Amino acid sequence: MTSLLDDLRVALGDSAVLTDPGETAGYSSDWRRLYSGRPLAVIRPRDTAGVAAAVKLCAEAGVSIIPQGGNTSMVGGAVPSDDGSEIVLSLERMRALREIDTVDLTMTVEAGVTLAAAQAMAVEAGMLLPLSISSEGSAQIGGVLATNAGGNNTLRFGNARDLVLGLEVVLADGQIWQGLRHLHKDNTGYALRQIFVGSEGTLGIITAAVLRLQPGVTARATAFCALPSVEQALALLARLRARDAGALHAFEYMSGGSVDLVLAEIEGTACPVDPAPHFILVDCATSGPQAAAASLADMLEGVLGEALEAGELTDAALAQNDAQRLAFWKIREEHAEAQKRAGASIKNDISVPLAALPDLMQAATAACQALVPGIRIAPFGHLGDGNIHFNLVQPEGADGAGFLAQSDALMDAVADVVQRLSGSFSAEHGVGRLKTGMMKSWRGGVELGLMQRIKAALDPASLLNPRVIFPAEQAED
Fold it and tell me: pTM of the prediction?
């Protein structure tokens, strides 16, 4: 190990190899503090050649690598083991914007660029990078793609994989795959980029990407709505789609209980509508001229008026300026932080067909309340694409550790409902270390076998991010 560290220092420079526990602590635990480890070292290459050299050295030494971006995983997807045998490879120094093409509507960025920085680069060029997630200020492009992040605008623009045209990837043996193509159509064999997107760093290390852009937004219309039921939320969604599906960028759900937690825990938040059991944040946008902007606001106001008359809404507020719009979004974006402050919480990142959402909410709520009386049910998320973060917060005054001890039972109760409704136990967060035990029963047989064969082909020694995605017994086969 000493020899490997010496070789890494020669290849990357002394400042790129961290071994002091004080310096490596921030790379050793996940955001939720579910997992903690002790890395042999944290290495921080400055370029793709450095990543390739480091990976090759580790492969030759038989040392596992944990690729890490902004370390914002909700499922423990980038944490080293606690035996001091693994290397954390951080992409944080690779922050270059390599190119923006306003004709082709693409941008080429390195893996360490934060999503928020990439968005700002696009805006400066008059473009829009439509991917948006709550952790975009810290989450880095490499990790966002490795987990196939979803986010607020999935309803309109799809998940991260739908925005990727090309990738540059360092493979498990240190080879570099140069796939940074800008082509919108390229039907030449397997779409290799899609194998790496969503692979959670188990097949290769993404070092750069070509991303699709959209014309810059010239105006937005945003509303915060109070509703009596999830069924009425779906009715509102149908109204908006029927009027102008292309303008609808986000349709975000918040339960009354989850909004209450935000208002109690996050300073500077205030609900703009009357109390209700359910809330929806609607965000519409246009890239058209000023006349189109006025038409957009009129469209949204008209739809909300119709919904109020039909009893689908009990109250609604239309943002009058950017400050109000950001205040609406702050309530939505602070849900995870508010739940963290409120005590121990259990996360369920699930998806079901849209028509099954009312059944999901009712059945999963009843199942969890039966297991833990007084539990705070705090679901929120991307109702427009069927993805709900069905989160559970400890009862007020309860023991957090005791609550978390019931995690398996509560997650199983929610999962049973989701499986009955033909849904998924991980809609956008990935599998990570947290949910590997669910893979066999949900994706077993041929499907899991195919994944394992791909892993064996690209990383036969299983040195890239071990312990994620695959059940432990299969990872050892």
Answer: 0.93
